[in-house]
């Protein structure tokens, strides 16, 4: 018997529906359940062929548990080693190398010194930074956001240099990035599962949270295919089994705005019933595929093209 486990926090609708859907498929030799942990011993395998991770980004103990599980052969969705290493600024850098349009972006040090550091820790940093060059490159309006993390936390829309310095002073030890504003005509949020299943959802980020999926953008067949290709390219290079990519359309060009979401919103109350049904069904199908392909004691993780090509010393693009 191969077990598929789901590791989650306070969310309920997706984990419960996922377990029910996997089990309702009645695939011989495969069952799903919430992950149960009563001890974690180094080098000891779990009872799960597959674990679907929805919470380790917030719980370091779970991330350590998943890395141990992966080393012992569990297929973890998403790869906990890559998830630990990844962040949004790197994603944007990678996009520039794989021909995916992204907003102009810069990163800069935290406003306050990190704990356990002093000014001497930054001997290589020019002070002040070339703020004039940065602002000329990005322009205003612009968005300032953390270089890692998600959930629209500590995100600022800025209209001037003075406003930038005022808001940056509030960010304390967060490392921030400044990003060109893309004035879009249409906006889409796209699920990608298994590097092959894509659902493109009209999305309006300017609406209140519970109404963001209430949008009537209708892409042409050509634009739909272009967006699908971009979503697949990004997720295959990053190596995420489950991710969302946000695309803003400006002058007919899809710009990837936010595409590091390895535990994306999948709550029925926010994404809507049709999108919820799709993500539950597709996640269940993919988890079963991973369980059926699972080889005991082997490396069953997904590794992206960036890592695979780097290890083989191939050109990235």
Shape field: globular
- Amount of beta strand: 15-25%
Low-pLDDT segments? none
- CATH fold field value of the largest domain: D-amino Acid Aminotransferase, Chain A, domain 1
CATH homolog superfamily of the largest domain: ATP-grasp fold, B domain
Strand arrangement within the widest β-sheet reads 2-1-3-4
How does CATH name the architecture of the largest domain?
A: 2-Layer Sandwich
Distance between the termini: 42 Å
Could you give the count of β-strands? 12
Please tell me how large the radius of gyration is: 21 Å
CATH class of the largest domain: Alpha Beta
Q: What is the averaged pLDDT score?
A: 95
Order of helices and strands: EHEEHEHHEHEEHEEEHEEHHH
- Portion in helices: 25-40%
SS field, number of helical segments:
10
> Main beta sheet: strand number and arrangement?
4 strands, parallel
């Amino acid at each position: 018997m191969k077990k598929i486990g789901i590791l989650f926090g306070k969310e309920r609708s997706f984990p419960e529906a996922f377990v029910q859907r996997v089990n309702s498929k009645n695939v011989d030799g495969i069952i799903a359940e919430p992950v149960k942990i009563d001890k974690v011993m180094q080098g000891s395998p779990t009872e799960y062929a597959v674990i679907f991770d929805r919470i380790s980004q917030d719980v370091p103990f779970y991330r350590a548990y998943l890395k141990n599980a992966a080393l012992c052969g569990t297929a973890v969705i998403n790869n906990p080693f890559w998830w630990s290493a990844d962040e949004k600024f790197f994603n944007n850098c990678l996009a520039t190398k794989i021909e995916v349009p992204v907003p102009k972006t810069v990163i800069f040090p935290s406003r306050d010194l990190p704990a356990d550091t002093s000014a001497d820790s930054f001997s290589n940093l020019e002070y002040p930074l070339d703020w004039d060059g940065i602002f000329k490159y990005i322009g205003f309006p612009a968005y300032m956001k953390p270089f890692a993390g998600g959930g629209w936390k500590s995100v600022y829309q800025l209209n001037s240099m003075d406003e930038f310095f005022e808001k940056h002073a509030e960010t304390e030890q967060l490392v921030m990035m400044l990003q060109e504003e893309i004035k879009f005509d249409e906006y889409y949020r796209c699920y990608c599962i298994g590097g092959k299943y894509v659902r493109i959802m009209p999305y309006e980020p300017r609406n209140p949270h519970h109404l963001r999926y209430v949008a009537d953008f209708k892409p042409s067949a050509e634009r739909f295919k272009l967006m699908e290709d971009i979503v697949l390219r990004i997720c295959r290079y990053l190596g995420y089994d489950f991710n969302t990519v946000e695309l803003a359309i400006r002058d007919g060009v899809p710009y990837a705005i936010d595409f590091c979401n390895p535990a994306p919103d999948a709550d029925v109350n926010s994404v809507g019933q049709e999108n919820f049904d799709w993500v539950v069904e597709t996640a269940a199908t993919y988890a079963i595929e991973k369980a059926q392909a699972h080889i005991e004691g082997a490396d069953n993780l997904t590794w992206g093209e960036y890592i695979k090509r780097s290890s083989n010393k191939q050109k990235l693009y």
